[in-house]
Amino acid sequence: MHRFALFRRMPGYKRREAFEGYLFIMPWLVGLIAFVIGPIVASFYLSFTDYEIVRSPTFVGLRNFNQLINDRLFWQALRVSTIYVFVSVPLGLILSFAVALLMNQNVALIGLWRTVYYIPTLVPVIASTMLWLWIFNPEFGLLNMLLAQIGIKGPLWLGHSQWALPSLIIMSLWTVGAPMLIYLAGLQGIPTDLYEAADIDGAGSWAKFRNVTIPMMTPVIFFNLVINMIGAFQVFVQPFIMTQGGPRYATLFYVLYLYQNAFQYFRMGYASALAWVLFAIILILTALIFRSSALWVYYEGEVRRR
Amino acid sequence: MQTYLGTRRRWAVVGLWLVGLLILSACVAAPAPAADGGSAPAGDGVVEIRLASYGLGDAWNSNLERTIDGFREANPNIKVKVEFRPGDAYWDKLQTEFAAGTAPDITINQMDWVIPGAARGMFVDLMPFIERDQVDLSAYFYDMAPEWGWRGGLYGGLLYAGGQALYINKDLLAAAGLEMPAADWTWNDMLNYALQLTDADSGQWGLYISPLNPPYWGASFIHGAGGSVLNADRTQCTLTTPEAQAGLQFISDLIFVHRVMPSPVTLVGQENPFLTGKVAMYFGGTWQEGQIREAGFDWDFAHMPAHPETGIRSVQMGSNAWSILSTSTKREEAWQLVKYLMGEGGQTGMMSNGIPGLTAVVESEAFRALHQPQDINVVTSDFANFGHDYYPTPDAGEWWNAVGQELSAIWSGEATVAEATERACAAVDEIFARRPAEWNR
């Protein structure tokens, strides 16, 4: 039966109710179509064009995608973002989980501690980026001053091609407050009777952590992994402000290179192709994580098929 | 079966929507440049034009409004709406507005935007208007053509003649018993000064250069040594020539051999170290004069030093312009405003915030008085005699970035001048190889 035929056969009040429902969600729908679906579809078309923004696009078939293969900066940008994702995401997940475990203790002023660890997440990214520029300053920065206290001459950090990317990875740990909060909510949702049962079985702290806490937290770890992986692939502001992709393209993140092509080099068509390749990469990795979740994510009450 | 058919139908509907959207998106088209000539005035005979600029602070913004008031009074039939915008994404926004056909009639413009935009049809050629109205370009000490000229056209009308300036901290010189440098001083003299003015224990440096990578101030040392960044027709990188490498080596030696200048990579996050009062000589931008004036120590401008053997002195210039967008349907009115702004009224009105290009205004007592006790003539005469453009090309943004990326390895000590320039030229030539043939001028 056709959907509209069904609509016509509805009783009047239901039809009115449905109409009002659509009317109320219309601003969101219009926004979704105009500002999300429209640009997505447009960028798909533009990825097959030579488009300089200020001129009409010309259809060039797969030329942009072919060009990607021979573009050494594309591979460099992909390499930088991939290293960043594969290092900063696991580090962030482990650190935020560890902090969440600490913040889950029943100690004095715990509310204050939780606030302190979460506050960096609330600082606008531009402000925190400027702050970290100073922290990484080789001459006057806090980091090298601390290293000097223990007799180590600190590196040039953002000014050296070997240290620039590790610097941005270190900086990414500044915002572990957001996943920490989600972990904390997950930790507080673990039923205490599971720990009591483990106590009765004679389990120690490590055994309880390994056999109760971790399995019960796997859905939260899974969620944070997916969200943080996607976010890490989309990093832009930090390298844009701090390094402009340098030195020697050491911090040429994928989205920064995409932006440069789109707005600085007048290659919006090529940038659209870059965007769709990134979409495909994120889609594949997300699908792999989802597929793997059957092996390591435990949902309370689920029955596993063998 | 019914469910299967229903699913198929649903997918067909979704597919149709997507095809529709795809067709709509395929209709993306840059707006055709508006036809030449003036616009028909509205019923009341008043034509409104929009001028956009990035905001440069309250003082600058109100100064621009005041200056334009002079135009408004003289042209009651032209209503000017000034739009101040954030500077960060100004160029991005302008491009998208242009694509959408909603760009202003006039925009502020700068050296890395004019030619890239002009080569792609974003801006109106002002030369036919200039010739028609017999605007005397020889009245300007600053030659606009090298910076804003493209294929015989001119795509910017002067706002400011900006660029490189050498600031001297006179207090530090006095403490070291040194006089202000002579007008004919050389790189060797500068190095001697820097050696005497550097005091590692107190964190005092002889000199600093910022921004350093070509086409910025490093280029003036390349030129001084007899080299260049690109060849004359801007089709090939020439940083690997011995002369260009010698210019860069001189800077590298200032950092690593003579140790009179901090490496730029050690001052990450510090916009202008001259303001700390711990840098004796500073190669900066003319736009920094205002903040230096507030720094609280005695200072003045010095002439650019000459290379001791070639005798060449060179100053990098990168100025601001007003350009008319080719989407404007009110080109005649827009030109009238640009002509006013680049003329005596506009240049005098805006001279408190930058260096005008009209010789008569630059030489006026009123302009000099604004900069006293410092001698602004030092800067303007260097501009007039030794000014060099930023090598503007339609792909400037891309190759400037490539040069900066590769040469940064010199300043961090990761690469020699020879290695870095080899890589920079390889990257630049790779970019140039992708150029459409019509860009090679």
Please characterize this protein's 3D structure.
The complex is a heterodimer of chains A (306) and B (441). Chain A is an all-alpha fold and 306 residues long. Chain A has helices spanning 3-8, 12-46, 63-70, 72-103, 110-122, 125-135, 142-149, 164-172, 177-188, 192-200, 205-233, 237-242, 254-264, 268-296, and strands at residues 49-50, 58-59. Chain A folds into two domains: 1-45, no CATH class; 71-296, MetI-like (MetI-like fold), CATH 1.10.3720. In chain A, strands 1-2 form a two-stranded antiparallel ribbon. In chain A, strand 1 and strand 2 (58-59) form a beta hairpin. The radius of gyration of chain A is 25 Å and the shape is globular. Chain B is an alpha/beta fold and 441 residues long. Chain B has 18 helices and 13 strands. Chain B has helices at 2-26, 58-74, 90-100, 111-118, 127-132, 145-148, 170-175, 187-197, 218-224, 242-256, 289-293, 331-342, 344-349, 359-362, 365-371, 377-386, 396-411, 417-433; strands at residues 47-54, 78-85, 106-110, 149-150, 153-154, 157-160, 164-169, 205-209, 279-285, 299-302, 315-316, 320-324, 387-388. Chain B folds into two domains: 47-162 and 319-388, Periplasmic binding protein-like II (D-Maltodextrin-Binding Protein, domain 2), CATH 3.40.190.10; 164-316, Periplasmic binding protein-like II (D-Maltodextrin-Binding Protein, domain 2, 3-Layer(aba) Sandwich). Residues 1-5 of chain B have low confidence and may be disordered. Classes of the chains: A mainly alpha (306), B alpha/beta (441). Chains A and B meet through helix 2, helix 6 and helix 13 of A and helix 1, helix 3 and helix 17 of B.
